[in-house]
Amino acid sequence: MITSRRSFLRSLSAGTVAGIAVQWPLTGSSRAAGFDFSRPGQNDGVIQLNSNESAYGPSAKVVEVMNSSIGSANRYPRMEYNSLAKRIATASRVKPEQVLLGCGSTEILRMAAFAFLGNGRQLIQASPTFEAIEHYARAAGSEIISVRLTPGFAHDLDGMLARATASTTLVYICNPNNPTATLTPRKDLENFISKLPASTFVLIDEAYHHYAGQSGMYASFIDRPLDDERVIVTRTFSKVYGLAGLRLGYAVASPKLIQQMGKVATEDSINAIVTQAAGAALDDTDAINAFIQRNTDDRQEFFNQAMARALKPIDSHANFVMMNTFHPAEDVIQHFRRNNILIGRRFLPMDTYIRISLGRPEEMRAFWRTWDMLPYPKHSMQH
Ligand SMILES: Cc1ncc(COP(=O)(O)O)c(C=O)c1O
Fold first, then answer.
1. What CA–CA distance (Å, rounded) separates 187 from 206?
2. Sign of CA pseudo-dihedral 249, 251, 256, 257
3. Which of 103, 172, 178 to probe ligand 1 with, by most ligand atoms within 8 A of CB?
4. Ligand 1 centroid distance, CA of 287 (Å)
């Protein structure tokens, strides 16, 4: 059932009356950035809680820069590429030759697969995790070894280590992990990396870095680098910066690894608008802090709503939440789809879990109303 935007909005406001009243917190720091969090999203009748995008960004300052950079759309942004790489290098406290930009961090994952895999060489990854590198590794002709997450949903580093051989040239660690939104402790990762074969590179995907919080469990490998030339860290502008549609990601690694990956880069894959918007996004620290705070509040509200229903989602360190429904995930996904809400795809082997990207308050109210319409007895969905 796809409805018009107008009837969809009508159903939203009707549901607001019928649904559970939510007092959405707006914190001081959220207001400080001057971002109007109540500005309606552009969802064209379908609520998109399926791709872990920012429901809010980009910030007003970034939009201004995007508008003013449109005039340069006729030019290849080669000089801008270099200035942005320098800007990211400064922010990451590395040399410019240690930074590589990609058309989304997905392009970096593709470059890593084609630079370091193929010819029977192996990739080790968690299961479930973000699948892009697996697809590219397969295309490059690699064997893929998937090791299930631990019962606490961290990477099973001992299990991964046990499978590593001289032909394992790449290990993929997604931290926080997509789809579980969980962390693997920093100290365990350090220990793991130190025990890997010398010929094994480790790609640490920090797409959700900004949401990971300040716990002692987590420290970015860009902010606190290891003295180890085998480590590649990737980040993206698609999440907290709200620029998923402009496609920009980057890698930070040793000059040698950056050079190897750069050989399989797509020429001129970075567009003229994002080279300028990204610099503004990095500079707008007030907005970043406000978006992080907004996500913390939205996440807390999700857990409040879940608790009110005696549900126990997996503790989240990202802008999405994974939750056991104790029913086939595909049926639950289809139920939401029939009600114009897209949630995450199936993530085998967790086939009774659903992944929900956090949306705006009105979108999340629609989510919970639709949840309450699931045709399952309530006790069958609780722990
Ligand atoms: C863990 C992870 N890495 C990388 C990406 C790719 O993001 P992008 O290509 O937009 O930078 C995603 C997208 O959702 C992701 O979840």
1. 16
2. negative
3. 178
4. 21
Query: Token match 């579980």: residue?
Result: 180
Q: pLDDT of 39-55, one tens digit each? A: 555 667 899 999 999 99
- Rounded CA gap, 52 and 207, in Å? 10
Q: What percent of the chain has pLDDT over 90?
A: 85
Find the 113 Cα to ligand 1 centroid distance in Å.
Answer: 15
Number of the ligand 1 atom closest to the C-alpha atom of 247: 10
Amino acid letter, residue 69: S
Amino acid in position 125: Q
136's tokens: 């590219």
pLDDT (mean) for 337-347? 97
Protein residue closest via CA to atom 8 of ligand 1: 104
Q: Helix 361-372 to helix 329-338 angle, to the nearest 10 degrees? A: 120
What is the position in ligand 1's atom list of the atom closest to the CA of 107?
A: 9
- 238, 271, 274, 322, best to mutate for ligand 1 pocket (most atoms within 8 Å of CB): 238
Enumerate residues lining ligand 1, CB below 6 A. 52, 104-106, 130, 174, 178, 205, 207, 236, 238, 244, 249
Name the nearest CA neighbour of 366 among 335, 341, 331: 341
**Given a cut of 80, is residue 152 above it in pLDDT?**
yes
**Separation between Cα atoms, residue 174 and residue 234, nearest integer Å:** 10
pTM: 0.90
Q: Look-up: residue for tokens 């590219």?
A: 136
CA 192, CA 108: separation in Å to the nearest integer?
23
pLDDT at 23: 33
- Between helix 272-283 and helix 60-69 the angle, nearest 10°, is 150
Closest by Cα among 175, 230, 186 to 208: 175
Residues 6+ apart with CB under 8 A from 149: 126, 127, 128, 155, 156, 177, 180, 182
Distance 7 CA to ligand 1 centre (A): 33
DSSP 294-344: HHHHHHHHHHHHHHHTT--PPP-SSSEEEEE-SS-HHHHHHHHHHTTEEE-
